[in-house]
Structure formats: structure tokens, C-alpha cells
Amino acid sequence: HTTINDFNTTPAPPPPAHLVIVPLLAQGHTIPMIDMARLLAERGVRVTFITTAVNASRITPIIDRVHESHLPINFIELPFPAAEAGLPEGCENFDLLPSKELFKNFWDALFLLRHPLEQHLKDLDPRPTCMINDMCNPWAADVAKALNIRRLVFHGPSCIYLFCTYALQKHNIYEKVTDDAEEVVVPDLPTTFHVSKMHAPGCFNTTNFKQLRDEALHAEETADGVVMNTFDDLEPMFVEAYKKMVGKDVWTVGPLCLYDKDFCSRIVRGNKLAAVDQDRMLNWLDSMEERSVLYICFGTLEKMKVGQIFEIGAGLEASGVPFIWVIKGVEKSLEVVKWLEGFEERMGLRSLVIKGWAPQAVILSHRAVGGFISHCGWNSTLEAVSAGVPMITWPYFADQFLNERLVVEYLRIGIDIGVKKPGFYWGEDVIPVMRDDVERAVRSLMGDGEEAEERRVRARELKEKAMKAMEEGGSSYENITRLVDYMHQAAATL
Ligand code: UDP
């Protein structure tokens, strides 16, 4: 039986887990980390999400929804040190950089966030009990150390890329390689897998970024665990090999894009304003036959050359397939705008050209969409997989060439358009993909040949697997349960 005295000696309950999320200020990284924040908050973790004024203003509808639904997420806006780092006012995200020359300044600005963040978190009540930082924000490791809390690293890219990066690094495989196109075998895999330095460049592998690379690798090594936006059935061999290699907790929790099923927040995912009238777009899509529309978008960072835009346009026109084509704000030169007038007139109702931000998650999951020309950014790849949409792969850099291999060779849900070298290897005048390549790939992806049909079936099966992974009992769902438990334990042992 219980006496009054027993009550008095019952220890106070441990403080609830309070997680600080430090995302990289790039939409390809922030979007999945917001999904993760909402998911963890829904599963009982209090979250402080670090952002800045400009970035917060891009996601105000999401922040409003978080507040309406009483999810315990607090968005903290740190002042962004643009001027100190030599950046124009308001340049608070990688996709707002006016030129590539300012790339390094942006990294410098991020590093300047370390002290303000530490100060802010020290004063926070209740105090943080755990941190998840983007792998590209190694400076956050010192903040977690100063607060004496556990820290996990979040990886935006695919596991195929991460595994290759670390395995090649660990065995110094590139040390003797002089030709970036030379093929080497990736060690520690059960099958023979060849890559080249050009296609599997590793982490920040240029001389300008040596310090950043060393710090990022060190921050990963010293992290208590790793959280990844992938699922076990998608790249099992690489997930297995990666877990074995890092020898610490690894939680695969994706595809995070499947967390958000609510139309109103999906339509504003990543940016509150789309450059297209929502009703017009949906009416247009609704009027199209099932799986007949091709979607073309190259993510948030690449700026396409004018000549390349013309080649894509000519290829799409010749293919006869209806399409939605996203041309980024930065690509809207006078020449392109003028050319588009005639192009859009010729295409008439067959096309919808979105000049700026597109609500990609909504487009890809519409029943009318049956194909996607993509740069193979990891989020775009996961969104295509989650929507059961086959791809035409057109990689540029970082993990994208390996993501292409995964999509084309392993999952067999895509056709490669034939890009051989990363974007920064091309000369100013080189246009890597010509109109005939575009037309050929589009016809075979969207056509009704046997191969195309089999590809569609595989894409649909993979979508089922992705959805299962995120449902109760699925691998990612269960990993999230374990991750949440881990965070509560970390809080209890502080
Ligand atoms: N995105 C979008 N609309 C656009 C461009 C991009 O919604 O007009 C989203 C896309 O759905 C994905 C992210 O931005 O979630 C881009 O991430 P990804 O990893 O594919 O490419 P990155 O931009 O990082 O190269």
C-alpha cells in the first residue's frame, strides 16, 4: 500500500525532451527539417526551430498552421549577419544569392550565427535537452557542447552518397586519383560498385572549402547519432553498409515529405507564394488525362543557361506531351521572357510554364502527372518516389549523380538523359543536353511501350513501400518512435 511518505519521496518526472533544430538556410535542407520538426512535435517532443526573419517570412503559413494546431514548436528568428559577411541586405538563403561569387560569404555568415545561437539557447526556458544540426552547419556542434547536450546530425542527401563519401574518405581512395573521370571501386560493399570523383565528389571537395569539409566531417564524427531522410527499402544495401561503418545510432526517418498530407500546407511548402494561380493550375491539371503530364523542375540552386532553356523548350515542343515547366526567377532574362511569349502561345493549352516558385509536392502528387524531369536533388527524388512518378534524370552536382544511379540502375524507375559531367565542368558555351535528347527521353518515359509500363509499375510499387515505411509499424515510423525515446532518455539523464 502507499503511504503519504511514499508520495513525498517519488522523484519529480524527468523534464520533457526539448529539441533544438538548426537547419541549413537552403530550401532543399530547410523543407525536410520543418517536416521533421512537425513530426517529432506531434510525437511528443518540444521543438525550438532556428531560422531568420527572411526565412521565417517565406514559411509564415506553415508557422501559422503549427500555432493553430498547438504543436509545441517555437520558431526563433536570429538576426542574420548579412552585412558583416559582405552580403546584400535580406540575402538570408542560398537561393537568394545574387551571384556564385558570394557563396563563400554565405558560409561565413552562417558561422557567425554560432555565438548568438549559444546566447539565445542559454537563456531559454525550459532549457534545450538535445540538438539536431544539419551536417552543413558544423559550427552548431560547439553550441551543443557549450550547453552540454546530446547532438545528432541530420543528413539532407541520400545514403548512397553518404556511404560512398565516407567509405572513399576512410580508405583514402581518391588520394592517388589524378583524373576526375577515373573509375574506382567503393570499398566495404557486398557488390562491386564503381564511381568516379566527378560523380561521387564527397563532402565539399574543393580546395576553397577544405576547412568547411574538415569541420563538417569532425562534427559528424563527434555527433551522438545520425538522422537520415530516407527509408530502409529504398537503398537497403547503402543504409546497411553506412550503419556498419559509422558504428553509432542511425535513424532512417523518411520520406519526410509524406508527413504532410494536408493540401493547405503542401501548397505553401517551402515558399508561401507560388508563381502560379492555384485555381488555374489545379483546373488545368484536373482537365488532363491520368498520368499524361510531364513535370520539369531543377530544384532551387541551379541557374540554367539561356541556350539550354531553348533546347529544353524545343524538345518538349517536339515530344507532343503536355507539361508543367518551372523556370526559376533568376532564369527570367529578357531574352528568355521574350522567347517564352511565342513559345507559350504555340503550346496553348498543352503547357503551363511557372516562372518562379512552383508548389512541387502538390503537382507531383496530382493524378494527371506521369513523369518528372529532375536534377535529382534528394528531396525531389523522394517526392517523385512518394508520388509513384517515374523520372528523367538530369544531375548537376553533389549527390545528384549518385541519386541518378539509384533511380536508374537500382530502382529502375528512371531514364537518364545522358549528362556526363557535373555543371561546373562545362565551359561557358557548352550546352550538355540537346533538343533531340530531351524529345527522345520524354517520348520513351511518357509513351506506352512495355518498358515504360514496367517502369510505371515499379514506381507505383515503390510509392506503396514509401507510404508503408511512414505508417504505424513501418520502418521509418518505428525509427521515429525509437528516436523520440532516445530524446526523452537524453533529457532524463541531463
Ligand atoms: N521546390 C518547390 N518548388 C520549386 C522548386 C523547388 O517546391 O519551384 C522544392 C522541392 O519540392 C524540394 C526542394 O524545393 O522539396 C528542392 O530540394 P532538392 O533536394 O530537390 O533540390 P535542391 O534545390 O536542394 O538542389
UniProtKB/TrEMBL annotation:
| Entry coiled-coil feature ranges | 435-472
User: What are the record keywords, sorted?
Assistant: Coiled coil, Glycosyltransferase, Transferase
Task: Identify the species of origin.
Answer: Dioscorea zingiberensis
Q: Does the keyword Translocase apply?
A: no
Segments crossing the lipid bilayer? none
User: Where does the Glycosyltransferase N-terminal domain start and stop, copy by copy?
Assistant: 19-256
Question: What is the superkingdom listed in this entry's lineage?
Answer: Eukaryota
Give a yes or no for keyword tRNA-binding in this entry.
no
Q: Which family does it belong to?
A: Belongs to the UDP-glycosyltransferase family.
Q: Which InterPro entries match?
A: Glyco_transf_N, UDP_glucos_trans, UDP_glycos_trans_CS
Name any one GO molecular function: UDP-glucosyltransferase activity
Q: What EC number is given for this enzyme?
A: 2.4.1.-
Any Pfam family from its record, for instance, is Glyco_transf_N
The protein's name is Glycosyltransferase
